[in-house]
Write a structure and sequence with these properties.
alpha/beta; D-Maltodextrin-Binding Protein, domain 2; 4-stranded mixed β-sheet; 19 helices
Length: 488
């Protein structure tokens, strides 16, 4: 029997509280982007009774050294050396200085990136076992590979970390295991899990022009479906210059980078490409899953037919974003990172929606999270007490102060245009999911087989998904066997 755990439901509750460790309450905007707006940061402590209850620890001035991967599409920094008026930067600064004082530690952060160092960069330090770094951050695929090779400690071997606390994502912790082995836990200091969440933006002016009505009400009533998206998106298609050729100067129903389309709609419809079996092992089932084939075929119909989608064959989605920003599309794909950066000063009025449900019978609006950065502790790490205390306290403090800076300020104030979009964002964050076929197998499926098939309008999906079956099975077997070996 297959257990449908390959898709992960990320439940999110939005709270603002203090961990009792000199917590602060920052406001507005983000860090890590040139588009960030300078705002005043409030530093008055607000204690609503949520604490980490760790007690007193003195680590004698030890350095807590983090090796962090930087990437242009996420807020990566775990440390800040000075306040600059940007809410996320300042929240990180205040959080870390409070933790330094509380536990007598010093934060230090070293950065690497895939362009200069490759995503495999941490491996050399993990194999050396010299414990130069206390915490490693990296791309999900690479971190899973390191874990399968036995280079990371199991989470349960790190004291003081309590996965049941609200600052750890319980659903992610439960599902991100293979063969019963857990090597990762995602806390509120990990902003990439929000950055990589996909949403559907809509142009309010075009909605009004074509008499589409209240899309928010449609979502609330459970009627925002594939059929509704298809009906509305066709209304907006216009050959504006009359040259009988559709290009970036015309108007579309939907814009998105070609490799994001099948998976964004597929995840929203609950079409699973990878599941977990009774032994906890990952199993690639896409070619035989009739729901996947049916959903993907419907996506082709909604986008390719009637010129609804602006065709593009490049991986960079900048042009698609610009078309939507400039009023050239009714709907547009966006990540939350893009929404809080490049869309923040958009000249059009836009709203935010989840991707549509498959049909009205589907109970939940699922929103795709395109993987996230993961954090690992070396198997050779000598002082698990310090790492556990610091991570637990950091996650709690981020839950209270960093998360509100991201959700309530960067998204709600700067990234959206109305309170109803805030309501939609709450719905989206409460029901984020991912499919291992879109994360661990991204190089085989999302950015390879599915991308090229979609660009070519090639609809023999069983053939497409079968051709890469051996590669997918081989890669999953590496993870399955590696994790299983560590549970013996």
């Amino acid at each position: 029997m297959k257990k449908h755990f390959g898709i992960l439901l990320l439940t999110a509750a939005l709270f603002t509280a203090s961990c009792g460790a000199d917590a602060t309450q920052p406001t507005d905007t983000d860090n890590g982007s040139d588009a960030s707006v300078q705002e005043t940061t409030q530093t008055e402590a607000v204690d609503s009774g949520i604490h980490d209850n760790l007690g007193d620890f003195d680590f004698g001035g030890e350095t807590f050294h983090m090796l962090t991967r930087t990437y242009d599409l996420i807020h990566a920094n775990m440390n800040s050396t000075e306040m600059n008026g940007e809410a996320l930067n300042d929240a990180i600064f205040v959080r870390n200085r409070a933790l330094e004082q509380r536990f007598n530690i010093v934060f230090e952060e070293t950065y690497y990136n895939f362009a200069q160092n490759t995503n495999d960069y941490p491996r050399q330090f993990l194999l050396a076992g010299d414990n130069e770094y206390d915490l490693y951050t990296g791309r999900m695929i690479n971190m899973f590979t390191f874990a399968a090779e036995g280079l990371f400690l199991p989470v349960e071997d790190i004291p003081h970390i309590n996965p049941e606390q609200p600052w750890w994502n319980a659903s992610l912790y439960d599902v991100m295991q293979i063969a019963g082995s857990r090597r990762f836990i995602v806390g509120e200091f990990n902003l990439s899990s929000a950055d990589f969440t996909h949403v559907l933006l809509f142009n309010k002016e075009l909605v009004k022009e074509y008499g589409i009505g209240d899309l928010y009400a449609l979502v609330r009533d459970g009627k925002w479906t594939f059929d509704a998206f298809s009906e509305f998106s066709k209304l907006a298609v216009r050959d504006l210059n009359g040259d009988q050729e559709m290009n970036e100067n015309d108007q579309y129903g939907y814009t998105a980078a070609s490799h994001q389309i099948l998976t964004s709609f597929g995840v929203a419809a609950g079409a699973e490409m990878v599941v977990r079996d009774d032994a906890g092992l990952l199993d690639y089932i896409a070619p035989e899953n009739e729901k996947v084939i049916e959903v993907f075929n419907r996506v082709y119909e909604m986008t390719w037919d009637n010129d609804v989608w602006h065709f593009n064959n490049i991986d960079d989605g900048t042009l698609e974003t610009e078309i939507f920003r400039n009023g050239g599309s009714l709907f547009g794909d966006s990540t939350c990172f893009h929404m809080t950066t490049v869309m923040r000063d958009a000249p059009i009025e836009f709203g935010v929606l989840p991707y549509p449900k498959w049909d009205e019978a589907q109970e939940t609006y699922f929103s795709r999270i395109e993987g996230c950065e993961l954090f690992g502790v070396s198997i050779h790490y000598p002082d698990t007490e310090m790492i556990g205390v610091v991570l637990e306290a950091m996650a709690c403090a981020s839950y209270n102060d960093l998360r509100p800076a991201y959700y309530d300020s960067a998204l709600r104030v700067k990234g959206t245009r109305d309170e109803e979009s805030v309501e939609m964002l709450d719905l989206i964050f409460a029901n984020r999911i991912f499919d291992y076929g879109d994360t661990l197998l991204v190089g085989e499926l999302t950015t390879n087989a599915l991308k090229f098939a979609f660009r070519a309008n090639q609809r023999n999906l069983v053939s497409t998904l079968t051709k890469c079956e051996k590669q997918c099975d081989a890669l999953l077997e590496l993870y399955n066997s590696g994790f299983a070996e560590q549970t013996k």
